[in-house]
Amino acid sequence: MSDYFSTTCYCDYDPPSIYSQRIIKRARKQSECCECGVKININDSYEYTFGVWEGYANSFKTCLRCVELREWAKISVPCFCWYHGDMLSDVWEMVNEVRHDVPGFFFEYGRRAIKIKRAGGHI
């Protein structure tokens, strides 16, 4: 069975030293999802995250399709570690490791990945 289901969880990165709450916003100007690259159009909802990691401030805009995929991964696998900007490959790596242990897991991933792909995202 995969390490993702272990009782102890270790992520090999430092959490942000300062982390603001994630906020769902409505776009006032066009931008791009930091995960899949899909355009976030004016009036589209997206997740805005701001944080300070190792003294460097950064902000991220994530489309709601990528947020859905990330939240599914976090709920499905207790020890899912991911980075902003690399979440899609982190999910894919986790799915490939877990899919043989959990029936239907790859199908559930695929349903969410297709939504991102159809929107024009790079998955």
Question: What would you note in describing this structure?
Answer:
- The chain is an alpha+beta fold and 123 residues long.
- The chain has one domain (3-118).
- It has helices spanning 64-76, 87-98, 105-118, and strands at 18-19, 23-26, 31-32, 39-40, 45-53, 56-63.
- Strands 1, 2, 5 and 6 form a four-stranded antiparallel beta sheet that branches.
- Strand 3 and strand 4 (39-40) form a beta hairpin.
- Helix 1 (64-76) packs parallel to helix 2 and helix 1 (64-76) runs antiparallel to helix 3.
- It is flat, with a radius of gyration of 15 Å.
- It starts with 17 loop residues before the first strand and ends in a 5-residue tail after the last helix.
Secondary structure elements and pairings:
Layout (H helix, E strand, L loop, with lengths): L17 E2 L3 E4 L4 E2 L6 E2 L4 E9 L2 E8 H13 L10 H12 L6 H14 L5
Antiparallel strand pairs: 1-5, 2-5, 3-4, 5-6
Keywords:
single chain; 123 residues; alpha+beta; four-stranded antiparallel β-sheet; two-stranded antiparallel ribbon; 3 helices
Helix content: 25-40%
Largest sheet: 4 strands, antiparallel
Strand content: 15-25%
Count structural domains.
1
Order of helical and strand elements: EEEEEEHHH
What is the number of strand segments?
Answer: 6
Structural class: alpha+beta
Q: Uncertain runs with pLDDT below 50, 5 residues or more?
A: none
The overall pLDDT average reads 88
User: How many helical elements?
Assistant: 3
**Backbone shape:** flat
Distance N terminus to C terminus?
26 Å
Cα radius of gyration in angstroms:
15 Å
